[in-house]
Write a structure and sequence with these properties.
The complex is a heterodimer of chains A (about 180) and B (about 190).
Chain A (H helix, E strand, L loop, with lengths): L13 E3 L32 E5 L4 E9 L5 E12 L2 E19 L11 E8 L9 E4 L8 E5 L5 E7 L9 E8 L1
Antiparallel strand pairs in A: 1-10, 2-9, 3-6, 3-8, 3-10, 4-5, 4-9, 5-6, 7-8
Chain B lengths: L14 E2 L34 E4 L4 E9 L5 E13 L10 E19 L11 E8 L10 E4 L8 E5 L5 E8 L5 E8 L1
Antiparallel strand pairs in B: 1-10, 2-9, 3-6, 3-8, 3-10, 4-5, 4-9, 5-6, 7-8
The chains are: A mainly beta (about 180), B mainly beta (about 190).
């Protein structure tokens, strides 16, 4: 009898969030709006936020930025639904992210050698809803991940505060993967 | 009314990971790389051997094994790898492979769970019957479940695959262990 074959399920790629990076924004806010939120790539005046269409059951988020080991920034997350022409943000939580120089990128790849991933993500006193958010934060130069259920929502928005924690980064961004 | 039909689900075989057991004595932490990760499976120098496989299904099943005697210990870390692109709507040539640390495992071998000569697991190799958390780790229960009954019953790690592309098992010899490896399957 021949051996059963492994079935190849689709693999979900991971993508860089903003093509550049947030380098100056130092406060996050969002309101109910009649304008559909968009990412800076298509709407430059909103260049303080990354907006991702929700699909699948959730999204994995991997914050990164610059410029040194242990630099940090604060990241805010909202999920959006719309009612008629009105877009309504649901606050998910705030994440304090600490970068690791060991997790830097590679020249010529989507993450430059001067950019580095976070190895630590902690709750910024917002009491994450663990039914929606789980965070893997091992530190010790291991990639940290936010796993967020997005079922029923249409958009995910991320915003950043560069000097929001204690050791301000000079750039902030995030990679994401739908699962 | 006719009886409901049984659905035929795919059956994934259990496979041996490394051909040549690893004798790595210290974990090496992987970093993002533009080179696609592959197994290191040298027969000449086994000291850096680690296993990389392609993920399938919804969950990965791992069964650590090694040598050389009952209650010897091997340590294993599981990483997932995902390929990073610039944008979803472009045909990128730039890629970066990013490692994600799933968990660290302390595995105690059972001589009652040894293999058979001439089979994929040899008589001198034995499966773990006990798997505990690496001292500095706290497993993410949303991703990992571990069955560790001890008492010469096969121990198993189950990890949700979550859309990642590859997995890697890295090793670090523990007390008494002299070789280490892993068998794997999917559900």
């Amino acid at each position: 009898m021949s051996k059963p074959n492994h079935i190849a399920y689709p693999k979900n790629g991971m993508y860089r969030g903003i093509s550049g990076a947030i380098t100056s924004f130092d406060g996050a806010s969002t309101d109910i709006t009649a304008t559909k939120p968009e990412t800076e790539q298509t709407n430059p005046e909103l260049n303080t936020a990354l907006v991702i269409p929700c699909s699948g059951s959730g999204v994995q988020i991997f914050p990164f930025g610059g410029n040194d080991d242990d630099d940090d920034f604060r990241m805010h997350a909202w999920l959006w639904k719309h009612v008629g022409t009105l877009w309504i943000p649901f606050f998910v939580g705030v994440f304090d992210c600490t970068l690791s120089a060991a997790l830097n990128g590679v020249a010529g790849s989507p993450i430059a050698a001067t950019e580095m991933f976070a190895d630590t993500i902690v709750d910024s006193a917002t009491s994450w809803d663990t039914n929606i958010v789980t965070v893997r934060s091992y530190a010790n130069d291991q990639l940290a991940m936010i796993k967020m259920s997005t079922i029923g929502y249409e958009l995910l928005m991320l915003q950043w505060e560069l000097s929001g924690v204690s050791n301000g980064a000079d750039a902030a961004n995030a990679c994401y993967a739908i699962y | 009314m006719s009886q409901p039909t049984h659905v035929s689900y795919p059956i994934y075989p259990l496979k041996r990971g490394l051909t040549n057991n690893s004798t790595e004595g210290d974990f090496i932490v992987p970093v993002p790389t533009s080179t696609e990760p592959e197994s290191v499976d040298s027969s000449a120098d086994t000291s850096a051997n680690s296993f990389v496989g392609t993920l399938s299904g919804s969950e990965l099943l791992l069964f650590p094994f090694g040598g050389n005697a009952n209650n010897d210990v091997i340590n294993m870390r599981l990483y997932y790898w995902r390929r990073l692109y610039v944008r979803p709507d472009t045909s990128d040539t730039e890629q970066l492979w990013v490692p994600y640390f799933v968990g660290g495992f302390v595995c105690t071998l059972s001589s009652a769970l040894n293999g058979v000569a001439g089979c994929p697991i040899l008589a001198t190799e034995m499966f773990a019957d006990t798997i505990t958390e690496e001292a500095t780790d706290t497993w993410d229960d949303n991703i990992l479940t571990v069955r560790s009954y001890a008492n010469d019953q096969l121990a198993m790690i189950r990890a949700k695959t979550l859309g990642f592309e590859k997995f890697e098992c890295r090793f670090d010899l523990g007390s008494g262990g002299d070789v280490q490896n892993v068998a794997y399957s999917f559900i």
